[in-house]
Amino acid sequence: MTIGDPTKLKVAKELGRPGILFCLARAPGSTRLFTGCSDGKVYDLDIAAEKPEAKEFVGHESYVTGLALAGGALVSGSWDGSLIWWNIETREVIRKVAAHARWVRGVTASPDGKLISSVSDDMTCKLWNAETGELVRTLEGHEKTTPHHYPSMLFVSAFSADGQRLATADKVGHVVIWDVATGNKLAAVEAPTMYTWDPRQRRHSIGGIRSLAFSPDGKLLATGGIGQIENIDHLGAAARIEVFDWQEGKRTHEFPGDNYKGLIEQLAFTPAGDTLIATGGDNNGFIKFVDLKDNKIIHQDKAPMHVYAMSVGEMWDTLYAAGHGKIVAWEFKAEAPAPAAETAAEGESKSP
Amino acid sequence: MTRRMNFCGSMDHGVSRRGFLETAAVAGASAFAANMNGLDVLQTPALAEEIKRQEKHVILLWLAGGASQLETWDPKPGRPTGGPFKAIDTSVPGIRISELLPKLAQRMQHTAIIRSLNTKNADHGGGASLMETGRRNEAGLQYPDIGAMLAKELGRADSQVPDYVSMYTSSEGRRKGTAGFLGARYAPMFLDKELMPENMRRLEAISDLDHKERADLRDLLHKQFARGRDNGSLASHNGAYQRVRGLMASEKLFDIGQEPQSQRDAYGPTQFGEQVLVARRLIEAGVPFVKVARAWWDSHGQNFETHLELCTELDHVMSTLIDDLQVRGLLEKTLIITLAEFGRTPQINASLGRDHFASAWSSSLTGCGVKGGSVFGKSDEDGLRVADGEVGSAELFATIFRALGINHQKNYMVGARPVPLTDPGTKPIEAVLA
User: Fold this and answer.
1) Which of A153, A301, A322, B50 is deepest in the core (most CB within 10 A)?
2) Tens-of-pLDDT digits for all 352 residues of chain A?
3) What is the DSSP letter of B184?
């Protein structure tokens, strides 16, 4: 499957929203978006509507930082430590689970929709039965403290396309790849450049791996974050991507970034596995299309806001994003192919 | 011009032992004159009061760069400005603080919170100067900072230990502090590199006996020279030398290796933990004022991650300090202050940061002279402005002085000019005083 033309990227719709939107889930085949907000609510809106009306889901007590559609329900995770299963039509709570001892940083659904993964600053990843809400297993493979004796943070998890592997990544750049069926640790890779510890000027840290994506064949694992920061008061370093052959334990690609600063908040491989789409930001936002074959940026542009989450349309020529005070729809549709010579020459006589 | 490296190794900071002696001797006319001649003799406290006061100590935890009041003492959960952290109950019913301070929450009975500071200066340099001295700068007059004032008020003339020790090892926003018109006698012993002061040890080439005999000879010569000469500078010169051996002997106070491992473990492995342990050792030995600067809280980006790190450390270390002082019977004699140059904006920027904010922020006072479990002042529901009980740096300083039994209206005489500890008309915050 081909994707649209990244060089034709344009904002198709920009919708201002109060609060900070940390996560996004899209009903398959539609423009119906669910987004989790800093006000503790989840909103449901149709971005294609002329005047999108947001319906709210009320149940969390802090930032909603993870959303996934699975098992016919919407599952949200929050800094209040809980997961909530919602009926997406009635917006009623199906169940609320005190999932983690500390803040939930992200929620992901397995490709078959049977499992929910949640990651938290209690440094565990938990797998849940998406249908029943039962805890399937707890994955523990990340240190609770950084090498400098401060609390670490477990930011993100991602399933492989076949659902057999799960990757988790933390603040210091440690990535663990798990066997979903057994909970066994299969491998680990490191991206320490994404963690900045300032021992002299400011004496604390910043950074961490904020995004993960498996290639469609499951062989490569992309990690996103930010490079080493000189002044850690700000997200003042280039956005950074590292790609690993996780089975070999080798880094295959490194994109240290350029003039777009900030965190890579989300990554997605295109179906062919040769291109990565990356979004994120600092005080501003960006979107990048990265060619893994030629090791180059195909196209990048400013986003209207710091982007925390995205969903790519099924035709791979539209993209929906949520972030700081906004929801955006981008299009990057390829131009219709030029008419064939015969057609173009319609009406003209042809030589026999 | 060649500049001599001083005590801390920095060209700009610190007072070395040698520098201390030279400064006291050469600049005695200003330094010691301020000490001896700049007294408000009419307000000299009674001896009993003096002795009582001299047993008091202060540990200032300077949260350099500006800690967020919303992630510490004045949380606003559920508000657009509140951030992700919730408020938790404390040991004092009705008082709730950020969930990032769970251990301090359980010790709230020792602490008073002031939630209504409006100090109007959200610039690092200006804000720090204001919150160090309690007032705005004035042309032609260099005010002493709170450490120097308390070193003077709480310190003993014959003390064998430093009066004012200041630790600031991170380089960002580093400020040494100043004794201002009080003179070099009250300048801080400044540690900006290691826990252990540099140049404190006797040179190996000189034996202890030799060193002592040199001191005795110098003292004999001084006495002969000073006979019939009633001169403050001479007294300053001699007084400085008389303190040398005591200061040298205080080296062990900076050595946390002297502490049981269990005690070191209790304070934890971070540099801040070790510095606060040294602070406890110092005040236990009689040092009246110790400042431990923990930099750098200036979280323009990733405020919540930064505070998750730094508040966790503050919570643990300060709680350990409170417990340690209490066990040693020192908590009622020691005032622990948390303070910074300002707080942080309620508004959250697109980098999930908070910026500089001086319009409605918080400080805490724990221990000596404080009505534990009290809260003064109130910010509005989003923390954007003070809703009740607005106070500034002067009121905070007056409160600190009063908590320590010091008359905040007392005057220093700078030449013929009376300079009060706090600006005229300033009132302490009675609601947080014991």
Assistant:
1) A322
2) 678 999 999 999 999 999 999 999 999 999 999 999 999 999 999 999 999 999 999 999 999 999 999 988 999 999 999 999 999 999 999 999 999 999 999 999 999 999 999 999 999 999 999 999 999 999 999 999 999 999 999 999 999 999 999 999 999 999 999 999 999 999 999 999 999 999 999 999 999 999 999 999 999 999 999 999 999 999 999 999 999 999 999 999 999 988 899 999 999 999 999 999 999 999 999 999 999 999 999 999 999 999 999 999 999 999 999 999 999 999 999 987 777 655 443 433 333 3
3) G
Cβ–Cβ below 8 Å for A153 and B349? no
**d(Cα B34, Cα B26) in Å, to the nearest integer?**
14
Q: Residue B240 and residue B234: Cα distance in Å, rounded?
A: 10
Q: Which helix (H) or strand (E) holds B324?
A: helix B303-327
Q: Are residues B301 and A235, on separate chains, in Cβ contact within 8 Å?
A: yes
- Please name the residues in contact with B165: beta carbons below 8 A apart, sequence gap of 6 or more: B188, B189, B191, B279, B282, B287, B289, B290, B291
The DSSP secondary structure of B249-292, one letter per residue, reads HGGGGG-GGGS-HHHHHHH-SSHHHHHHHHHHHHHHTT-SEEEE
What's the rounded mean pLDDT across residues B168-194? 92
Contacts of A276 (CB under 8 A, 6+ apart): A213, A222, A241, A243, A267, A268, A269, A270, A288, A289, A290, A292
**What residue type is A30 in one-letter code?**
S
Which residues does chain B have within 8 Å of residue A153's beta carbon, measured at their own beta carbons? Answer: 305, 308
Which is nearest to B412 in space by CA: B148, B236, B124, B205?
B148
Q: Which residues of B touch A202 (CB under 8 A)?
A: 65, 170, 172, 295-296, 298
Contact A328, A52 (CB under 8 A): no
Length of chain B, in residues: 434
Tell me, rounded to whole angstroms, the distance of Cα A54 from its chain centroid.
Answer: 22
Cβ neighbours around A29 below 10 Å, total: 8
Cα torsion A79, A84, A86, A90: sign: negative
B148 token code pair: 């120097």
> Is B162 within 8 Å of B186 (Cβ atoms)?
no
Determine the pLDDT at residue B46.
54
Q: Which residue out of A100, A152, A204, A226 would a mutagenesis test of the B interface target, given it has the greatest number of B Cβ atoms within 10 Å?
A: A204
Q: What is the dihedral of CA B131, B132, B133, B137, to 10 degrees?
A: -70
Q: What is the pLDDT of residues B410-419, one digit of tens each?
A: 999 998 999 9
Long-range residue pairs from A98-105, CB within 8 A, at least 24 positions apart, any chain: A99/A126, A99/A128, A100/A124, A100/A126, A103/A62, A103/A65, A103/A79, A103/B84, A104/A65, A104/A66, A104/A77, A104/A78, A104/A79, A104/A80, A105/A65, A105/A66, A105/A77, A105/A153, A105/A154, A105/A155, A105/A156
- Closest CA–CA distance from residue A161 to any residue of chain B (Å): 31
Distance of alpha carbon A311 from alpha carbon B324, whole angstroms:
53
Q: What are the distances in angstroms from CA B403 to CA A129, B286, B361? A: 58, 18, 21
- Mean pLDDT in chain B? 86
With an 8 Å Cβ cutoff, are A121 and B308 in contact? yes
Give me the half-sphere count of Cα atoms (radius 13 Å) on the Cβ side of residue A142: 36
Domain with residues B38-196+255-432, CATH architecture: 3-Layer(aba) Sandwich (3.40)
- Report the distance separating Cα A310 and Cα A321, nearest Å: 4
Q: A61 vs chain B: nearest CA distance in angstroms?
A: 7
B355 at the A interface (CB within 8 A)? no
